[in-house]
Amino acid sequence: MNNEIESTRQQKIGRQILRDMSDIFSKEAAPLIKGTMVSVTRVRMSPDFSLAKVYLSIFPFERHPEVMKVLEENNWMIRKALGIRVKNQLRIVPELAFYLDDSLEYISEIDKLLKQ
Q: Which InterPro entries does the protein's record reference (predicted)?
């Protein structure tokens, strides 16, 4: 996806997928992430809606490599759960690409440095 501004439809579908993915992480994927809090911070859709870039915030942050690995290994299961939710809105279920949103960790680090 290039640097073009997202269309209104891309933003709308992205918001819907964000809500659905949040629900999936709190229910179906909960056994996979065992005691880790995973929040969906943002979803970017490709212009043809075939790819959803899902940005995740993981707490505790130290477990992010392990959680990201588990999510990639179970991408098919998460995509299937998403497909059940969006079957009436989208013609195809987008491929999911997970990215770590480490902005909260960055803010925490800056805050810690400022307090020193």
A: KH_dom-like_a/b (IPR015946), RbfA (IPR000238), RbfA_dom_sf (IPR023799)
The CATH number of the domain holding residue 62 is 3.30.300.20
Q: How many structural domains does the chain have?
A: 1
* Cis check: omega of the bond before 60, within 30 degrees of 0: yes
Residue 80 pLDDT: 96
Is residue 3 assigned to a domain? no
In angstroms, the CA 74 to CA 8 distance is 30
Q: Contact at 8 Å (CB) between 56 and 39?
A: yes
Across the chain, mean pLDDT equals: 89
Token duo for residue 79:
């995509």
Query: What values do phi and psi take at 9, rounded to 5?
Result: -65, -40
User: pTM (2 decimals)?
Assistant: 0.83
- In 3D space, the residue among 50, 31, 29 whose CA is nearest the CA of residue 40 turns out to be 29
Which of 4-8, 13-17, 24-28, 85-89 has the lowest average pLDDT? Answer: 4-8
